[in-house]
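Allow me, if you will, to draw on your knowledge of protein folds for a short while. I have a record of one protein: its chain in single-letter code and its fold written as discrete structure tokens. Kindly check, if you would, that the fold set down in the tokens agrees with what the sequence suggests. Thank you for your consideration; the sequence and its tokens are set out here:
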Amino acid sequence: MLDIASLSALLASPKKIVITTHHKPDGDAMGSALGLYNYLIQKGHHAKVITPTDYPQTFNWMPGNEEVIIYTEQTEASNQLINAAEIIFCTDFNNLSRINEMGEVVRQTGAVKVMIDHHLEPEDFDDYRVWNINACAAAQLVYEFIVNEMQEKQFLSKDVATCLYTGIMTDSGSFRLPLTTSTVHRIVADLIDAGAENSKIHQLVFDSSSETRLRFLGYCLSNKLEMLYEYHTALITVTAEELERFDIITGDTEGVVNFALSITGIKLAAFIVERPDKVKLSLRSRGEFPANEICKKYFNGGGHRNAAGGAVSDTLENVVNQFKTILPEYKKLLIQ
């Protein structure tokens, strides 16, 4: 493992750098990656953000977005950049399987690998690690890397601050989840002082839905919501045909599960959707209920205690039935 002095020495002169994040990136993934990008280019580095897949149009306005390369759309160019990189930053994930086929390409390079993440059980692929499971977002850790470890707060530009604010805001549930500590609020204040326009960012992320997404949300809540009162659980299930009917694109299903969790008395909410390759499951929970344990144990996934996900190569009906049969095992936790 490198120490911060060695990494700082490497970053003292321009380097070829690739920044990547997990597949189907969310606000924290894009916020942390682009925040890091905007920091590094100020220092004269030749940096590029490569995402394993596409991501929601909700984040297309973020500073530096126009320079992002999507691996599945420009695979050859991406591989060339990865193989030529001297340093690879991995943000908001800690296992190379999370970047799909990019994972083995990254693994085989001789580049110095820096992991910035807040998820459990990191894979040992990195040379330097900024890792804290108590951080509310990877974007928080990017801030701490720049300001505390590199001691380069002077590079906290408006563009950097805007991206990091977006990451922290989205992954903290608009600053309402338990890991939103006083430290997080002080960081956010710093970001606002550096130029992040909080109300504008919130509007761009949360108040820019398409008509089809709103109609889809209404359909899910009025037709697809199933209440499992005995287990204080709410479930929304969506078929591939329904996704096609509403012309759903990447990002349109983001946050639907939170509406189910918002129901009074509900402790666990699930959103199970049939995708072309797999059935994907998103869980949200309250308090001490371990949503991540269910995803890891039964659905090839993981995540945080109150926000987790998984994916299974099976039919939608089988996955839904499996989820329901698991609930009695957790009944005591769900009803206490």
